[in-house]
Specification:
With 284 residues, this protein is an alpha/beta fold. It has two domains: 152 residues, Rossmann fold (3-Layer(aba) Sandwich), CATH 3.40.50.2300; 96 residues, Response regulator (Rossmann fold, 3-Layer(aba) Sandwich), CATH 3.40.50. The protein has ten helices and eight strands. It has a five-stranded parallel β-sheet with strand order 2-1-3-4-5, with helices on both faces. Strand 6, helix 5 and strand 7 form a beta-alpha-beta unit. The chain is elongated and about 60 Å long.
Length: 284
């Protein structure tokens, strides 16, 4: 195995890798731990493999990848992470904050490269952004800081909206921070902000029923992987006749068209190309 040390690229800091196993392998093995399903992540996987190839790795030739998918169920992540550890992978790529937390709980020795939208310091993944320390590094998009901007975008698209609801997952560690940030933005604009909470399929249905009762003109959905994997269901609920008259039809009249497929494809490329470059330094 070629890996001698774990290089930290964030801020140019460097940290030593943990002790390596004596047994040599024909090729390094990457454990890929994802919160969603393989079928929903084709664009991300394509970018992931492109990132590998651009750093000199070709899956099946000089690197192997063990994929584990939680199918949108966070409760499956600890067992999936433990399975990767039992297979003695050389590095774990953890996509999402909950995936990274599960990977860290499963091993304090295997290097972990994570991607998260939360605060990795607050979540206990690293010691600091400049010098993470330990066996973990990765990228964060700090979605908490972006939520007020997303709220402002909604108000620009719908200037007459007096009520905008926020849908969050109460089971995530950073949910309260998200709520506080958006509440401040709503208060500054004099807009009512009902907080809808959903951590299961049934709670999403109940949240949309409340949305109609609150006469909300728009819905801001938290940037949570649980909701990403249920985007189709959320759209279907928004287009349901029970809510369409109050929300969807109004939005179609006032909001400009957005090329979401292109946005998602570009986001996928940014995520996985960054991950690939971190991982390249882990394996070398």
């Amino acid at each position: 195995m070629r890996r001698r040390k774990l290089l930290l690229l964030v801020g140019g800091a460097v940290m030593a890798a943990p002790a390596l196993r004596a047994q040599q392998k024909a090729m390094p093995v990457i454990g890929y731990l994802h919160f969603a399903s393989a079928g929903s992540q084709s664009a991300f996987l394509a970018a992931f493999r492109q990132g590998l190839s651009e750093t000199g790795y070709v899956e099946g030739q000089n690197v192997a990848v063990e994929y584990r998918w939680a199918e949108g169920d966070y409760t499956r992540l600890p067992a999936l992470a433990a399975d990767l550890v039992s297979r003695k992978v050389d590095v774990i790529v953890a996509v999402s904050g909950p995936s990274a937390i599960a990977a860290k709980s499963a091993s304090l020795a295997i290097p972990i490269v994570f991607m998260t939208g939360g605060d990795p310091v607050a979540d206990g993944l690293v010691g600091s952004l400049a010098r993470p320390g330990g066996h973990m590094t990765g990228v964060t998009f700090l979605f908490i800081e972006l939520h007020p901007k997303r709220f402002e975008l909604l108000t620009d698209l719908l200037p007459n909206a007096k009520v905008i609801a926020l849908l969050v997952n109460p089971n995530l560690s950073f949910t309260e921070s998200v709520v506080r940030a958006v509440q401040e933005a709503a208060s500054a604009k004099g807009i009512q902000l009902p907080i809808l909470k959903a951590g299961t399929e049934g709670e999403i249905d109940a949240a949309f029923a409340t949305l109609v009762q609150q006469r909300a003109g728009a819905l801001l959905v938290d940037a949570d992987p649980f909701f990403w994997t249920r985007a189709d269901a959320l759209v279907a609920l928004a287009l349901d006749p029970a809510t369409r008259a109050r929300i969807a039809a109004h939005n179609r009249r006032t909001a400009p068209p957005v090329g979401w497929p292109a946005v998602l494809e570009r986001t996928a490329a940014l995520y996985d190309l960054a991950i690939a470059r971190f991982r390249d330094h882990v394996l070398r």
